[in-house]
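Notes from hallway chat w/ T.B., transcribed later so I don't forget. T.B. wanted the structure written out for a chain they're using in a teaching module, and asked if we could keep both sequence and structure tokens in one place. Agreed to drop them here.
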Amino acid sequence: MPKGRNSKKQKSGSKDRKGSLPPDGPRQTGISSDSDLASEAGSVYSMQSEFPVEDGFGPPVSTETGEVDEISAQQDFENKLGECIDGLSDKSAKTRQDSLKGIRSAFSKKIINDYLIDRKLTLGDALERCVKKGKGEEQNMSAIVCCHLCLQLGIGDDIESVFAPLRTIFLTIVKDKTASPKARTGCADALGLCCFIAGEENENLFTIMEALQNVFKESYPKGDGTRPSFTPEVTALHASALSAWSLLLTISPPAWTSTVINNMLPRLQELLDSVDVELRIAAGETIALCYELARLDNEEFEGSDIDGLCSKLRQLATDSNKYRAKKDRRQQRASFRDILRAVEAAEFPSETVRFGTEALEVDSWCSKRRYDAFCQVLTTGMNLHLRENELVRDIFSLGAPLTPEAIKHSKVSKVERVSIFCTG
């Protein structure tokens, strides 16, 4: 398990606002105005997991009784998954991609550690071949499935035996400027999450973080102050590399972290002028994380130019420039209001994520970065993994998975909920 430090709560005067986080990340879309965003912040999101049965992994249902035959369902599930694993060796790129989609779908629906123990090397070897043989999309999907496999296996020798050979390949692709941006993006995401899960030794950790930094630093202004121009795909790569780098920052040695933060803050501030909203937000959230980590050791930490930084953050939090898309402006303002409060007042708008009868409190920028990273990979499967995956529950301090009896006793009837609401 990652041997990082958890971020403690900041100054006692900080406000604790409840908000909502969707299962694919914290950013809201489709809301018509900032006032709508504010009203949304007062709600608590109940995570939903909906998976199509058309992918072949839906449970079989008895036509006579209408009940699921659990034994047949498990056998059918494992048979279909085995077919997908075999499909990774097919000569057809389309067949391999369809197989990767099937495996990702299966891993989102069930925790199958026991099934994978004897098949992890076979699957790891197949993923390695897909990354080497495939192009763009296939390499991206292979990297995502690698993340899922590591999450299924959990911590220990099992994950190291799978990730070690893939780590080298992912690093090579991330460093290769001639490789597909989509492939490099998937590999950057995989390096961040798999390294985080594996709890890499410092030497590997620093090597990976340096490689990721060398990717997103391409978006720094040039020596003459002009800003480089990239395609949207390359800018998305830079944002992913920065997000992966910041995830690994949360498990970096404290003594090393303080030096990195002081060196990186001025450069991160330069990324706030990027033309891409996702990169601006990724830079802003990384700045907020840096301040949170720095203030664990020094509550009065301000950095080299906090006044200039706050001025820039305030500008982005109130940006109304018409040349930006309306959706981008809305997304940016909502994000940078929170980022500004983090830098100015060491505040974090606490978020509650409900899944089943339980709830996860995302109460720091450190926990938010981790939650976002897991959501990005697991998407709608986040619900299942929060509920049943021991590794994920351990990372988010949720304790052991609840037993069926505990879940049954923790459920509150509709009448009881109404009674609690009326008397509360």
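Follow-up for T.B.: The first strand starts at residue 45 and ends at 46. Might be a good example for the class.
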